[in-house]
Write a structure and sequence with these properties.
Elements: E1 4-10, E2 14-20, E3 26-33, E4 45-46, H1 48-66, E5 73-80, E6 85-89, E7 99-100, H2 108-115, H3 124-127, H4 136-146, H5 150-155, E8 159-163, H6 164-172, E9 182-184, H7 185-188, H8 203-209, E10 218-220, E11 223-228, E12 239-245, H9 246-253, E13 262-266, E14 270-277, E15 288-293, E16 301-308, H10 312-320, H11 330-335, E17 345-347, E18 365-367, H12 375-401, E19 408-411, H13 418-428, E20 432-435, H14 440-452, H15 459-463, E21 468-472, H16 478-493
Parallel strand pairs: 1-5, 5-12, 9-10, 13-19, 19-20
Antiparallel strand pairs: 1-2, 2-3, 4-7, 6-8, 11-12, 13-14, 14-16, 15-16, 17-18, 20-21
Length: about 500
Amino acid sequence: MSKYIVAIDQGTTSTRAIVFDHAGSIVSSGQLEHEQIMPRAGWVEHDPMEIWRNTQQAIGQALSKADITRHDIEAVGITNQRETAVVWDKTTGKPVYNAIVWQDTRTQSIVDRLAADGGVERFKPRVGLPLATYFSGTKIVWILENVEGAREKAEAGDLIFGTTDTWVLWNLTGGTDGGVHVTDVTNASRTLFMDLETLQWDDEILAAFDVPRSMLPEIKSSSEVYGTVESSSLLREVPIAGILGDQQAATFGQAAFEAGESKNTYGTGNFLIFNTGEEIIHSTNGLLTTVGYQLGDAKPHYALEGSIAVTGSLVQWLRDNLGLFANSEDVETLAATVDDNGGAYFVPAFSGLFAPYWRADARGALVGLTRYVNKGHIARAALEATAFQTREVLDAVNADAGVDLEELKVDGGMVANDALMQFQADILGVPVVRPVVAETTALGAAYAAGLAVGFWDDLADVAQNWQESKRWEPNMEPEERARQIRLWKKAVTKTFDWVDEDVR
């Protein structure tokens, strides 16, 4: 009988379990959405217990649809929303507060306090990241300072922290009964706490944040056996052998294993990752330096990353908040009712601007409006915002790496939108390429787990699975491309300096 790998993809809007075969093809999947909790402007939370329940159900759905059992599964891989922070009591297994999501901006005052001594790049030479609300470190501080009794419990060693990979792993391996408290290097590199050189927690930085080291999980590689699934699960006794943060997982799933290779994922936000090999390159153009992956005891591969906060979630906003269409897929139909954006540009700085600007004071703006502009133009401007933001990040990657990218591999839900992909190629001036299996995030986690247990022999074995599905060639005139980019950059400047003491 054939054997398979199960990947658990714990994402921003849902949790999925996907069964993959040796060819990297999807055999079956299960998926459940979880609630987006927004108690105040700028606050975004998830219920960790709901996520854990959904994980279990998604596994059951995937196994049932494929008509297989745990005996058919060689290993489990986990991928996750990287900077979303969970703090829980290790004796009860209960979170002390909801998970604070990567999009959440409530910790800006903590960022400002830490930046008062050395600026926002105070720790960047060591951790590759600027001080920002995006990363999980400041979220832990907020919980310790604002949840009653949390500080005391943490100091006593009763509270532990994890991004959602760690939360799922801990529960899968037994929870309060011997749960494994581990994360991998890619997720650890998104906390603000891990030294990129040593791949260990930095005690000096932890002291500056006033976070007890006892809260933090052990850092492991992205591909090794961390433990086995506990006895009451449908996957009992199956080894859990791979963990990659979602964007690194997508890069791995795209078989971008070597220096100079890259991918762009179009999801809730957009994330372009450029593999720099075993070299740590510190960006001077607003990018993040992060760990790309580490296989067992081998040296890690590093990467430059351009993180964009709002892309797919802008389409959801048009659907849910403005009611412009009933289904997200309908945005393409609405945008197709017009020939261009009508002069309108939509800068979705809902949580400030991430790469390459890192402006927490920015807020969303729709500019260039005239009476001519209709909802079709707005839908088109929203899609084009994704492509424009990607262009700015790619420019930064080219500047930092010193080599121009010749084509862009893409994945994620929005790559099914042909109009967007064509405009992306047009505004970049390079081909855009989509693989046969677009679910590269889950696939990357499956590869990491499968490599650890010998399901795949090596990276070359994995790379053979990658196949091109579709390619979009640029056909926009250079003069028009330059004009569009100039107007976009002008629109971005209109979002600056909006948040001050009176506006939050």
